[in-house]
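Bench notes, bay 3.
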Amino acid sequence: MATVGIRLRDPSLLVRKNYVDGQWVDSASGATFNVYDPATGSHLGTCPESTVEDAEKAITAAAKAFPSWRSRSGRERARILRRWYDLLLENKDDLATIITHENGKSKADATGEVGFAAGFLEWFSEEAARIYGDVIPHSSSSFRVQVTKEPVGVCGMITPWNFPAAMITRKLGPALAAGCTAVVKTPGETPFSANALAVLAERAGVPKGVINIVAALDNTPQIGELLCKSNIIRKISFTGSTRVGRLLMAQSSSTIKKLSLELGGNAPFIVFDDADINLAIKEAVVAKFKSSGQTCVCANRIYLQKGIYDQFVKGLVKAVGSFKVGSGHAADTTHGPLIGPNAVSKVSGLVEDAVSKGATVLCGGKTIPALGPNFFEPTVLTNVNCDMLIANEEIFGPVATIFPFTTEEEVIDAANNTDVGLASYFFTQDVCRATRVAEQLQSGMVALNSGVVSDWGTPFGGVKQSGLGREGSKYGIEDYLQLKTFITGNVPVIHRANI
């Protein structure tokens, strides 16, 4: 099988191996899996098909590195993270090229992701030296109480393909800042981005064993189960589907470990009659079609109050019609392919189900064979109702579904009628309505007059079956720390007059 080269300024960033205990190694089994460019179908190379044995070696290496790493001061760890941040920015073009090749997103989108990924390292470099404890007054005057925060230990991380760089740093940034070490299981679709980050981490001074990376495609379930059931791993951080999150949570129960689960969403996007319509359309394009709709916070259900319904729909269709779909390598591409055939099949099936039940296709609705098997037209559907699969499942593709509504109470009930609650968006100029709606939406993140919820300094996560814990922000580092209460008893009490 011919392999297409990925042309980089620094070819050493492209590594097709595992990273264990500071060494680039093959799987003990010798097996590999293939990695393809979803836009062109080109073969990009192979990575080790890691086994449980490989993952156990990575866990052992992380455990060995933990005592030394946790003993460093927060300021020492901060300096290393800051150097890592600088190196990401210095190599952003190469990193973006790797992301575009293996993920498919446009080069502009990939470049933006590199900046996003770097930002987590900068943010947590600033938090590493600010892990504060407390002094607590005891009920007895002869006792003293101190509360300290300690790193939880070795962490197992399972990362997704849709943000192959940013989801690595959003987890490793706080983990390393807190003093933890890690074993990262990378996605089979996009292993090279994580490896490039590991090369730069090593250059930044991250000691061997602190970060360990194992790749796998077919063996992913076995490695995930090992991470969950290992007594050495004290925390699991997972970004992915709710279905897999439930499984990992069950598998972790036998070892009672900390869990951060950033799972699926079904985000409502609500536009009231008094909204700035042009702003709402612009932000809907961002919230729905970023990365070709392949994000967990994408607007899944767009609710339009009847007074602005026609105007909004007309504007959205016009905006979607201006998209340039194609290979992410082309300079004018705005939207790339879906990640693979299974993703295309799912999106096609959801659209077909909706149309069969009465939905109207205003634009798009089909695959684009001329571009390749993984391309799907950006799509707008109206006459959608809650009996359609597309209203109840996370689409993860470039399909906007439109629902009309009349009253505030009606749309709040509709928006909350789901088992998940990751992100919600709504648009209004009424400050009283803004307060009411924000308080009533059942989501971990609510955006008013914006289609963006992610930032390094804001907590990212959901409620209900969208997960547990938060990533990013000062709260994100708390998930990698545990409290220790230190009680000193029977301190002699000396009564002395104040002078």
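Next record in the batch:
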Amino acid sequence: MAATNAQDALSALKDRSLFIEEAYINGKWDKKAKTFDVFEPSTATVLGKVANCEVQDFHDAIAAADVAQRDFEENTTAAQRGAILRKWNDLILANLDDLGTILSLENGKTIAEAKGEVTYAASFIAWFAEEATRSYGYTIPSSTPHTNVYTTKEAVGVCGIITPWNFPAAMITRKVAPAIAAGCSVVIKPPSETPYSALALAKLGELAGIPAGLVNVLPTRDRQAATELATHPTVRKISFTGSTGVGKMLAKLAAGTLKKVSLELGGNAPFIVFDDADLDLVIEGVMISKFRCSGQTCVCANRLLVQKGIAPEFNRRLVEAVSKLKMGFGLDSATTQGPLVNKSAVDKVNQHIEDAVSKGAKIEFGGKNDENQKGFFAIPTVLSGVTPQMLVANDETFGPLAPIFEFETEEDALKLANDTEFGLAGYFFSRNVGRCLRVARKLQVGMVGVNTGKISAAEAPFGGVKESGYGREGSLFGIEEYQVIKSVTVGNLNK
């Protein structure tokens, strides 16, 4: 029988030691005098109290990471690093149930989605276990006689990792796995809303043989402490996933020591439905893209752009599908929509609905949420008659709100889709092969889904353009973010 509350769920964990509230610094679990509350979002009650690290803790972790990184890169082969990662992957999958429960409790997403995320998180570790041995250098023909030129790829050094709350497991492994594969060490600042998954993953990494100091996890609500990762000269790389505003701030701070930086920031993804689309695929795609994690993903469809001829039928089918969603506690197997992460997230959804309705939009399903309700729930909502003048057209909602815009021509759709400073993901549905190739090329985004709402996988490059950031995660390119190229010229070979 499934647990009906957080404390019962924690008591039912197979390995209670995976629910950790200490910081992890230099291979030691450190219980801090200062803590902060973490909330279970379906009831808005305290789930636990986690160590609140300070500036000195970050200095200690960075120093430990520096020593560990130098030793790790020098004394392990790529094959050995891959073996450690494979063992870590195996331990994560062996503890799938517990990790899924912990993730669901702190984030609110359904247990099915939570377990899916844990499996997804493990896939990055498995992927980069193999990529560790595939970081090839080049031999380059020299323009000088009796000279050889070749390149090697080396670890960038200590990496600062800052992750978001919406994917508290996958965003850790998508960054840490390639770092370890490259021979780097990491200091992780997990999100204060969802720190437990990061700590549990670190525990399993320790059991897998990751050396002390190579992975450090420092929960904190101290902004000054967290910014040490962007300013400390020993940290040579920052990887951040989060809002565009914070990303810009970190990039400016990192410029002070010319750190390598990769940023995966905000999105405003268009979801285009052409009148020749297969509507069964469209509805399946929009439900995945828009309502996964209750709409709290950076690649969520934020704007549904529907060609006028097909709009009435699309609206009808979407309302029918959305009406079947069931809000509730994430560990309840009947739940399909968990809560949002906090009250501010619910307030933003309400604000977008109120603004759109005040400017002429129509509520097809759902509507404004009860401010006195228990927990941080937002009703899945469909709006029609949405225009570019409304907040939802330009501001990422990050909630279960589906706004429908109508367009006449392909050119109109592309103009609407690209009329944003963001460029993370975009989706469109059409059975016209020529149109598929044209639109995929013309969408100003880093990732495109054609006739599918699912675009994220370990093998697929993940990242955006414009103000959605730079750098790529996952894929064969992901390990390059944690490496530098060294050129070696050997002369006078005839002497």
